[in-house]
Amino acid sequence: MNAKDRRVTALSLALAERRVIHLKEAAALLNVSEMTVRRDVAENPDLFGYLGAHIIPARGPEIEAPYTVDRAAESHSIAKRQASIQALRYLQPDEAVFIDCGTTLIHFVDLIPADMRLTVVCYAFNTAERLIAKQNITLVMLGGVYHPASATFAGARDTDMLNAMGLNVAFLSASGVDRQRGASCEQFHEAPIKRKAMDMAQRRYLVCDSSKIGRVRPAYFADVSAFDAIITETGPLPMDAAGWNSGPATE
Amino acid sequence: MNAKDRRVTALSLALAERRVIHLKEAAALLNVSEMTVRRDVAENPDLFGYLGAHIIPARGPEIEAPYTVDRAAESHSIAKRQASIQALRYLQPDEAVFIDCGTTLIHFVDLIPADMRLTVVCYAFNTAERLIAKQNITLVMLGGVYHPASATFAGARDTDMLNAMGLNVAFLSASGVDRQRGASCEQFHEAPIKRKAMDMAQRRYLVCDSSKIGRVRPAYFADVSAFDAIITETGPLPMDAAGWNSGPATE
DNA sequence: CACAGTATGTTAGAAATCTTACATACTGCT
DNA sequence: AGCAGTATGTAAGATTTCTAACATACTGTG
């Protein structure tokens, strides 16, 4: 039983450093047969998982549910990505950029070319996670207490930090945009950060899919006139044209 | 070319939501043959990667280098984990805890029981990443500019943030501990944060494997007397006993 | 419309991974 | 030492995944 424990520990250890390890590699590492490693893995489903012949740390639930086109359509993923593609045209190399939280701007981050040099400020964990992977980006993170609902950090000192920065552009997200009632989001703690970022930036763009137009959400953070442009999947909205949010919200 | 682009986009989209997707599933999702998906993936190595028949987002370099026992021994992984196990005895539920950066304390975080309620302050990305996954932990992150070398954030306002907190314990790491020259680390920007955390905490523990004893690294941050205990893989060092760091550094 | 070039599908065989069953080695206990 | 139970290794066959080659369909251009 003792040797087995040692192997399991060593495997956990190896997985802590690398994200995956091939069955064959693990067998070599532990000086046992592949079959033994298989058995070790099988006996500790709470520690290890499989992806083909690759051992990975125990997987979260994410892998389970099959990804369907329906679910994707429901969440407007395609529209969000399209909006991000449109917004990308407003991003210049070598600028200092604020990137807001939310799934829409996750797409935006993914779309930033690998060779574009930028300084990016963010306060969402999943945004930061992807920015870190990009070599040419200097990342500045606003700290604070973690809010799982939006995967963001928010706290006392974040606006101070922004004060010390010169921002060229701010890309904002919103879950509601109404001509009269302005841009709004779900979480109240996000609003002050959004506002501060908008204050500091030379240019301000709101990026969202058109399903958000006409909606109002609990936390107001800016009038529509505060943005240089509101960018949806079809490009910037004509700000001056009457009735751009006259249609019903298509949730 | 257009249909292909749409597929690539849809695949990226799916991967953004789920971490992996099976080749077969992707083929069904996109309504094309597996072979076509394979070709799509092969043509976009900067976007996609493979893990067996599973498509994953473009992998970082981590997967490449084979993990060897040598490297593991070199990095003292086992000792680090042992030290963390020892340190875990000093962690009480419902406390406010500071956790330092570094691989040693990554093990420490991994070892925190899933049901332990804590408030944790950290400033390293990989530490935060693991803490977020724990349901019963309230995470406070110190922000700032990202330093890839240590995966930490550091900046102007982080110490302010700590000022506003009451900390029960601080778990510190060091890459050098010398009885005369104190505790030191590689990165200068870490030192002020470590010091501030130590100032704020009621109890201070240094956690490191014994290979660090007797070493001196560039960035000094505290005398050994500043710690309530120095914990290595064999438990707390006898602080009063003479000569605990008289031996040669066994790198 | 004919053509060149590209895109996609299909298939067969090679290579890998997975499962199962059985043989052998080890451990702790009396 | 002898025994029961566990742990590990080996190997064959089933299954899945990978590769390469060829066939067919589609696209835009002159």
Please write out the topology.
2 copies of one chain form a homodimer.
Chain A: H1 2-17, E1 21-22, H2 23-30, H3 34-43, E2 48-51, E3 54-57, H4 69-74, H5 77-87, E4 96-99, H6 103-111, E5 118-122, H7 125-132, E6 137-141, E7 144-147, E8 152-154, H8 158-163, E9 167-172, E10 176-178, E11 182-185, H9 190-200, E12 201-207, E13 219-222, E14 229-232, E15 235-236
Parallel strand pairs in A: 4-5, 4-9, 5-6, 9-12, 12-14
Antiparallel strand pairs in A: 1-3, 2-3, 7-8, 10-11, 11-13, 14-15
The structure holds a DNA duplex (30 and 30 nucleotides).
Structure description:
The structure is a homodimer of 251-residue chains. Mean pLDDT of chain A is 86; it is low at 246-251. The longest helix of chain A is centred in the first third of the chain and has 16 residues, at 2-17. Chain A has nine helices and 15 strands. In chain A, strand 4 (96-99), helix 6 (103-111) and strand 5 form a beta-alpha-beta unit. The first copy, chain A, has a seven-stranded mixed sheet, with helices on both faces. Chain A has a three-stranded antiparallel sheet with strand order 1-3-2. In chain A, helix 2 (23-30) crosses helix 3 (34-43) and helix 6 (103-111) packs parallel to helix 7. The termini of chain A are far apart. In chain A, 34% of the residues lie in helices and 24% in strands. With 251 residues, chain A is an alpha/beta fold. The first copy, chain A, has helices spanning 2-17, 23-30, 34-43, 69-74, 77-87, 103-111, 125-132, 158-163, 190-200, and strands at 21-22, 48-51, 54-57, 96-99, 118-122, 137-141, 144-147, 152-154, 167-172, 176-178, 182-185, 201-207, 219-222, 229-232, 235-236. Chain A is elongated, with a radius of gyration of 22 Å. Chain A folds into two domains: 2-61, Orthogonal Bundle (Arc Repressor Mutant, subunit A); 70-236, Rossmann fold. Chains A and B meet through helix 1, helix 5, helix 6, helix 7 and strand 6 of A and helix 1, helix 5, helix 6, helix 7 and strand 6 of B. The first copy, chain A, binds a DNA duplex (30 and 30 nucleotides) through helix 3.
